[in-house]
Records
---
Amino acid sequence: MRGYRADTAFDGDRELPGGALVLVDDGVIVGVEPAAAAPPDGCEVQYLPGTTLLPGLIDAHTHLCGDNTMRALDQLPELGPDQLDTIVTASMHQQLAVGVTAVRDLGDHQWTVVERHRGRPDGLTVVASGPPITCVQGHCANMGGEAAGIDQLRAAVRERAERGADLVKIMTSGGIMTAGTDILAPQFTVDELRAVVNEAHHHGLAVAAHAHALTAVEQCVDAGVDTIEHCSCMTAQGLFTPPGLAARMAAAGIAACPTLGHDFSATGGEQPPHIAAAMERVGATPERRAKQVAELYAGGVTLISGADSGINPSKHHGLLPTAVVELVVDCGVPATVGLASATGVAADECGLGGRTGRLHKGLDADLLLVYGDPLRDITAIHRPHTVVSRGRVVVTAD
């Protein structure tokens, strides 16, 4: 048995006044005590004043097959299994290095993540969708998930269930990373989306829907998807969240993953040119995007954090802490809500609530100790000291 003590702690839902002592045995949390509690006899305790103890973070939107380059997604059909395995393994290490201990992979190629990397006995916990379903020549069609018409869409869902995917991902609008698709246009009808949702729910699978266009977001709500990825509500006149739409999402229990988090240091401090051009076309400035996400929160929508990591240099793996900081600092969300969006709430929405995401007895011992207090200064989440994955220390600053 081993203990981790901190004077400040966040359990995935709320602050634990006075901190906590978390006891770990055989990869599982076996106790959560007040920080002042005495550990069991013979239990070694790690304690560093000035740190905060959190659950390991969850990146709710990643692409482990993406290698962070400008051609990360375009190159996928050119890669063999060994190359894909190498990229996925590197992506996992990059995530763990910043305190991410679980991910929801929403864009697989050749079933690489689902079939070879999802069930590893240690390290990153992964739930995976397999190749995203898209229309013919639609967004991310090169990942192998094209389908046309209700019959093919239902068959695509069944294939994912049969191959062991944890959920279904569908591209309901065009996207920035696929040339020739229209980010302002839906890719399916509402009836087609309902067929996907009904088939997926019949097989016990949630549906995560990529949606940029406001019309596509509205279709997703009508169809009853489980989470909306990006949910940027784009129109030709800019980005905005209609109040009634946010209220409908909240009432239906549909969460949004706004995929914040950017690092332009690798691109000269600016967005890649093709992304900047697409954003300018729809008036999607960083300030307007932050305001639109704030509108989702004000409307009662549950928010989870995912960085859309791996797809290009500005959205590299390990960017989730930045997404949480942007949610709090730029969008005005309280620090407790921002932290929960990447821990307890993310676990629930990603189907991991019974495994990780909280400092609760019986869950996997996925822990993060950071220097400072992210409850008062959210940027402290950028300063990991110790990362524990299923009871094993994988990162330490010592």
---
Amino acid sequence: MQLERRPPSAAQTSKVEPLPTPDRLDSWKEIAAYLNRSERTVRRWEDKEELPVHRLQHDKRGSVYAYTRELDAWRVSRRVVVEATADEPPSRRIRPAWWVAGILAIVVIVIAIGAGMRVRAANTEFAERGTTNDEAWQAFQRARFGDNAGRVQIETGIRYYREAVELDPKFARAWGGLATAHMALTWFGERPPSDTMREARREAEEARRLDSSLSIGWRVLGFVSHYLDWDHQQAERNFRRAIELNPRDAVAQSWYGDFLADMRRVDEARVQYTRSLEVNARWLEPAILSANLHTFMGQPTHAILEQRRTLESEPNYGLGVHYLGRSYLASGDWAMAIASLRKSNELIGSVPFTLGDLGYALGVGGQREEAVRLRDELIGRRTKGYYPAFPIAQIELGLGNTDAALTWLESAVDERHTGFYMPSVEPIWNAVRGTPRFRALMAKMRLPS
């Protein structure tokens, strides 16, 4: 599950894209053209209005440069000044009538050309960004979170995405980002999926209504159909449509891989993760999730090798450390599993799926007292408000309490919250996979058992 990308922060999430580097303008001429004013005007703004211009030398005659991001922020903060300021007026010397008429004709032509250029520039800006509202664009940029985002980053992203769509209700990309953030909150927050997924569906449908050519709305609807509705055929149609619209959408490729893994179509899932990496080789998530497929197929040693290789470039990538711990669990190396899962729990921020996996590892790894304390703490949270049932089910399973584990898993299924991967493919459920109760749950969710 992924959202739009930024450099790693203190915690983690799934599915998103890198921020662009601000453009640099290297002369008064370029700065003036960017602000649509004369060089004389922008020089005056630097002197009187604190226009953010930098110099390569310490004297005032040195070469200048500016960043478009800083100019955009200044233009927003000085909107009144910018709108009220015109360039220097033309000379008022009296000229012969024919000459004046010629000048007026030239002025009319220039104005027409300038208006056409402004219209074309606005159209180009809209095509590239999806909005011509600078404030909405800045809010959208602030909203985007990266590979290592956790609950705080996702909730902050939701706040800024909402600001963006309030400033420009027709900003389809911002609606798609808001839908993605609400979907991610299902795993990284403590809100019922009936809330987060339904909000994600409404926002994705709005993004699709505004611009049906954007892949982001379709890929979110794919996840909602899969997790909330258990309509896996519709989910697959949505994922395929997203990829058809944008074959370069690495997030859609990876999310489709997650879906295929849940459906136990492991070879097809590996193809999708590989395609995602071909589009964005620096995105760590599909590399980690592709390695998980070895664990699902009973080959955790292969998964460990691939995950450790991926983590060499970013040792504190929370989701990668987490699934490395899961692979150690499948290999029977309890000590390494517990150490990795403790670390990932700290990196990601003690969210339900990290606590559930850690509690399971403590139970099977012989640290039962700590596992029991964690289970009781999570049960206590449910008495004060919503808290997912599925991590409690995992801990009970690790403690060997299979009947209790299945009871909690039944509650988790009713809540539509059974973890990042569904029980159909999760190895920890192998111990109860053949029981009638588990098979009944898989049938209820329309998943292969």
---
Amino acid sequence: MNAKKSILAAAVISAFTFGIETAQAAQVAYANFTSAGSVSNLTLLTAEGMGCTANCDSFTPTNGGHGYTFGGANNVAFTWDGSVFTSPTDYIGPGSASNATLSSLTWILGRSWVAHDVQIFGPGTYNFDTSLGGGNPESGTMSMTVGAGQLGVHMLWDWNGNNNIDIANVWNINSKFSNCGATNTDNTITMSNCLWTDAYGNPAGNNANTVFQFASTDNNGDGTLGIPMAQGGPFVDSQYGGFNFNFNLHGSMTVVPIPSAIWLFGSGLVGLLGISRKRKIS
């Protein structure tokens, strides 16, 4: 009898340990995703307070308000294996495990760029130490809160000799990026949060009314879409703070249900514990 109890206890402990490790796995299946090719968008916005309130189509716009669009690309290629990370410790600096890629042949402000260490995150709050990148004198913490029905991304970005620049976005699913409403007040035109729609290299015809599979949001609530860049990087204003890089992505996604095996494991474990308890009482 003691031998049987020992075998049962060992089985329960083994199964319980396996279940704990499975539940705590940092990278878990989330969706089946199909890429739409090189048709996604990158929109660069100035920092909050550096938007445009007048002369927006000139070389001397009047600053103020929310972010002003100063660059971007509309032929960004995006791939994703459908998994999500669940802990900020999944980012350890350059060389972190990656579950997605972003690339484009379009130069940004006259320079080529490379995105790497791209990580897609599920719901939760994440804080990234920007000093881990090395090669770029960033400092401080970049934070994002991913809500239910949203996804987040953190990546490192190389541009013009500035390597490992931290970028983060939180995306709404099946949403527009911005309607870029132009407000006329006393002959003053205010333009903010506009999608980059340069006709060059825009195979999907992305525009203000485009619904993206993943659309960048104003996650820190300052009025400008995106999450500000960290201090010390090349896209930071000494007065207003970090600029905002927004990736808006096309594709097709079907959310993967939680595997029934997990629930079967849980109910089976409860059953085993119940049997063990009954035998002990009797």
---
Amino acid sequence: MKFYNREPEMNYLDKILKQTKHSSQLVIVYGRRRIGKTRLLNEFIKYHNGINFFVEQKDEKLLLVELESEINQLGLDLPPVFKTFDDFFNYLFNYLGKSRESFIFVFDEIQNFNKINSGFFSKFQKYWDKYHNDTHIMLVCIGSIIGMMKKIFLDQKQPLFSRAQHTINLKRFDPFETSKIIIDHGITDGKTILELFGMLDGIPKYLQYLDMYWEGDVHKFINDLFLTDLAPLKEEGKNVLIQEFGSLQSGYFTILECISKGKRIPVEIANKTTIRLNTVNKYLHDLTTYYEIIFRTYPITEDPFKSRNVRYFLKDNFFRFWFNFIYPSQSTMKRVKEEFNRYLGVIFEDVCAEFIRKKGYEKVGKWWNKEIEIDVMGIGTKNILFGECKWSNNPIDIDSYFKLKEKTNTVSLKVKNIQFALFSKTGFTDRLVELSNEEKIKLYDVDDVLLNK
């Protein structure tokens, strides 16, 4: 698959490289597996002087031999000889780091050194502190295990605490960037794009499977990718999370499954899972701040630091889909067909919120109280938008507009200019279209949202 839009990250890396004219720069690049971290750095190095070295979990001596070999391929005047990592760091800083041209060195999956040589990071600190001010290295540390990367570089007890000057938390492509990628595969209707985004998210590695498995039918694609004995993503969710957690943490898995199926409030999760509430809250904190797998949200009009009216959602549509349909027991295509449309309703709401955000509203989110819920709201300096999202096979009729309008009476905001928007999978009835012209209701179908029609 071709390299898609990472322009902000590429520009940032370029700015960092320019700073190495004055001193070496240490960069952390982290993000979940399959997000494209290695590809990003490989594309960047193409245009500069550097090397990306993958830290494989193997004997230290074998790793040093491999490191020697890769650097030798650069054809440098002074061939490397590495018996220890002291030799490597001396070569990196005293030879590569003192050449006229800045040099990029990437440790790809640097957290693997924890299993290779526990003293590596202390050695790293020693040479960095000694040489970085007088050398010209852009030293990049890539990691896919988010919790581990945070421990290595952000834990005050660790040798490399506060050493990194730059951090890139690489994110998935948003729905609109993802839509462009899917369109490049010949898929041009918004409904199918939404369905694919709802299972693959904007994760480059998963989107590559369109090249191999897409034959024009979403259900067959799901079956081939997730459900058959040889399906490449059948165990993917478990494998990614076990790598992150360090083992099959049943508590984390249970809570993630519970959230994916609609239990989003701590008390509901505790009741559903029979895990004590205090323990649930601890797990939710870890999954939010340490592992970055879920996020905490609150009604858009409330103060995020004071609100107790919180809900939790999985960040990643792939995990949402995997926990809904694959884990813990193997799913069937019958169940997928029965429940996939319901599942996509929440995905559609999220995509519509992103669509509204691109319209320039300062705050975008949901609103709810004990009785009612508004799917999406956008708050600007002078106006407010209320939106209803329907992922249904039936066109939206005028009753949806009047119900939405009635809900807004519950929200207390001092804004005079109120707008309404309805979002639909299958369009709108003629009488709603006519009413929209009279009352200036914004109507968007899924093609309007994802194809910018």
